[in-house]
Amino acid sequence: MENEIKLNVEEMTQAGMSFGHKISNLHPKMKPYVSGIKNSVNIIDLEKTAKDFEKALKFISRLVFENKTILFVGTKIQVRNLVKATAEECGFPYVTERWLGGTITNFETISKRVGYFKDLEKKKEIGELEKYTKKERLMFGKEMESLRVKFEGIKDMTKLPDAVFIFDLKKDETCAREAKRKGIEIVGIVDTNINPEMANYPIPANDDAISSVKYILDKVKECIMEAKQSK
């Protein structure tokens, strides 16, 4: 089962996907993906990006077709709302606040905390917290908010994900390391300051510009929705 998602290099250019980091920040292993330099900034070869992005989309499509789970990880402030919205639309778990060390490598412990959070939510819903004093209810409220921030995106994730999609491999390197330790495949945007070998399916592109990340997310969403329809 293969879904063809059309990638247009011109559209990718307009989305600002080709702008990397300053030449002084170039990761040596990103050299093959750089087509030139403009104003001391590395320019990413989007023809190569398109080929790698297509491979990533085919992988994502296959996962969806096989009812596998992809965990979206995007904790950078400017993209977190986009990542969260797309993950929710696609029905996948997400982490858009700080990555909690052990989310993958210590999943059992994290799951217990998530269970506690869900239990509190349920108690609030059925009015079981009303028997407590105002001060105690206030404390429960603060605790629930803290837990919501940490666990809202993964509260329905009952097992380890089959893949993680990381939107900034530098910021969320801990997540990548944990995924590697557990043998979980990584799809990731790799800017020019990142080692592309950190991802099994690297997408060489600007990971700072909202327009660049939005283009990638839109294509990923399109791919996921098509795969769901064709099941």
From TrEMBL:
GO molecular function, one term: structural constituent of ribosome
CDD domains cross-referenced by the UniProt entry: RPS2 (cd01425)
An example Gene Ontology biological process: translation
Pfam families: Ribosomal_S2 (PF00318)
GO cellular component, one term: cytosolic small ribosomal subunit
Alphabetical list of SUPFAM superfamilies matching this protein: Ribosomal protein S2
Stored Gene3D superfamilies: Glucose-6-phosphate isomerase like protein, domain 1, Helix hairpin bin
Keywords (A to Z) from UniProt: Ribonucleoprotein, Ribosomal protein
Highest taxon listed in the record's lineage: Bacteria
Family in the record: Belongs to the universal ribosomal protein uS2 family.
Name of the protein this chain belongs to: Small ribosomal subunit protein uS2
Species assigned in the record: Candidatus Staskawiczbacteria bacterium RIFCSPLOWO2_12_FULL_37_15
